[in-house]
Design brief:
The protein is an alpha/beta fold and 169 residues long. The protein has a single domain, classed as Rossmann fold, CATH 3.40.50. It is 30% helix and 25% strand. α2 links the parallel β6 and β7. α1 packs parallel to α5. The chain starts with a strand and ends with a helix.
């Protein structure tokens, strides 16, 4: 099975986007490593807690088959984070799965990996990804090549399933 890197913001990640997506991936036997800009317990926006095992500045993308960027209000702290951008670019350049949900597709847009791609994002950020070359597709989950984007917590289950589908192919 695959090894998947899930990157969460250092505060206020959206609980469903982490926990439901992670559950879908683990149901298919994938191993998960949770990372952020700091190690330790990180609080979600809905009261959940997650353990960041490693900081993103220490990530070697060669060790992972996919990356998942989780949204929530805190993901704004990663929009221009150079380590997050590096990870998105390296994973994309290695033709690995690059995925993001809610606000987090802005990270992918800022990394340049959505240029010329169909994508979705939280509606308030649609213009941001369009300004960086993405074709905004509206609510739900969008798959374009190795890129998977979801727009909101309610898309978390389908988002996880689409990552699984791409890992199988």
């Amino acid at each position: 099975m695959s090894k998947i890197l899930i990157i969460i913001p250092p505060e206020r990640f959206r609980d469903e986007e982490l926990f439901i997506t992670k559950e879908e991936l683990e149901k298919n036997g994938h191993s998960i490593v949770i990372s952020s800009t700091r190690e330790g317990i990180i609080n979600g926006s809905r009261g959940g807690k997650a353990q960041s095992e490693v900081t993103i500045d220490k990530i070697n993308t060669g060790e992972y088959d996919a990356v998942v960027f989780v949204g929530g209000g805190g993901s704004r702290l990663l929009f221009n984070n150079q380590d997050a951008i590096r990870i998105a670019q390296e994973m994309n350049n290695q033709n690995k799965i690059v995925s993001a949900i809610c606000f987090a597709p802005v990270i992918l847009a800022n990394a340049g990996v959505l240029r010329g791609k169909k994508a979705t994002v939280c509606g308030t950020e649609a213009k941001v990804i369009e300004d960086r070359g993405a074709q905004y597709m509206g609510p739900g989950v969008t798959v374009d090549g190795n890129i998977i984007t979801g727009n909101a917590p309610k898309a978390s289950k389908l988002f996880g399933q689409k990552i699984n589908d791409l890992l199988k192919s």
